[in-house]
Amino acid sequence: MQILPSDLDTLRSLADIKSDDTRCVLSVYFPGSQAEEPLALPLGDVPERMLETDRLSDDEREHRDRNIERWREATTDLALPDAPGWLAVVSWMTDQVCAIPLPKPPQVAAYLDNSPFLYPAGRLIDEFAPYAVLFADHSRAVLYEAILGDLVEHDRVRGDIKNHVKKGGWSQARYERRRDQEIHIFCERITERLRRLIDEEELDRIVLAGDERLLGELEEHLEDRYREMIVTRLPVDDASDTDSLFEDSLEAAFAEEQRLERRLLEQIRAAKAADDKAVLGPNGVLDALKAHRVSRLLIGPMEDTRFWRCHACASFGIGNAESCRDCGSEDVFEQSAANEFTDLAFEGGSSVQFTTAPIQEVGGVAALLRW
Ligand SMILES: [Zn+2]
Questions:
Q1: Pick the CATH number of 131-258 from 2.40.50.140, 3.40.50.2300, 3.40.50.261, 3.30.420.60
Q2: pLDDT digit string, tens, across residues 22-67
Q3: CA terminus-to-terminus distance, the chain
Q4: 48 C-alpha to center of ligand 1: Å?
């Protein structure tokens, strides 16, 4: 089983595995070794026990069985790395079996769909995207990346800046100058490494923790671009308790994520009012997605929206799965609207902002348009 990076680019590339009219790809969601509640059934049995698919065609039945067979082979004696959770994708047609670690344990589920079922993974990866945590006091700075439910130490800088001890025969003024100089050099070294981590890992949020006065100095050494990424400043004495440092930082990072979602919603509303370069609600957004007009998609759970696909002519749209609106065939099946919209956005190169808020006031989904 191939292990892929836990990011939206990976999901975007998986969206290329696709059939228009046949459900031929198996997706499996399950908890990892770091989940509090372990999987209650053997991993190999998950698809058979969890798949809920109606109106399967003969072809789809074969895809289901072949994929399940592949899954059983791939999970025999499988030892996955530590992670809170996993999405695995099995496509026997394209000969792919891969797994992506998730930052939170997902609900155990299996889907047979016309493409990988990416919506739940997208939501978790977006919601719990990695960020930087910097702990600093006068003796040391420790730089962490918060990733996949853990703080991973990245770098460490020794400070050893004396607090108030007057040494030798130095005058107070000379001592202060010397100390200011030491702090300046310390801050330069820390911020250089922080910038490197942010740029290399493409992070967009920073949590500062530690000595308040030193953190203030540090901020002055950061360019605006990085300073704007700071989501909170936590007064913390002890860097060794990484568990509580992680918990506290997570809360702030999560609040920032929600602020970004609200800001995007306001932007969409303003764009709609100003020059109509935005759409609200499932019908308008679906048309825009089909025309590849969406630059940024804001998508909620869309639980009130039904979605159908047609076996006969590969058409699809919004509404109950009764008959095809294009060819009239009754050989149609129900799909998850949120997942279909996510796929279309990935395909069209739109950026996707997932939200757990139902955003009913805009019909569960909205978008900024390119033109
Ligand atoms: Zn049709």
A1: 3.30.420.60
A2: 999 999 999 999 999 999 999 999 999 999 887 899 999 999 999 9
A3: 41
A4: 29
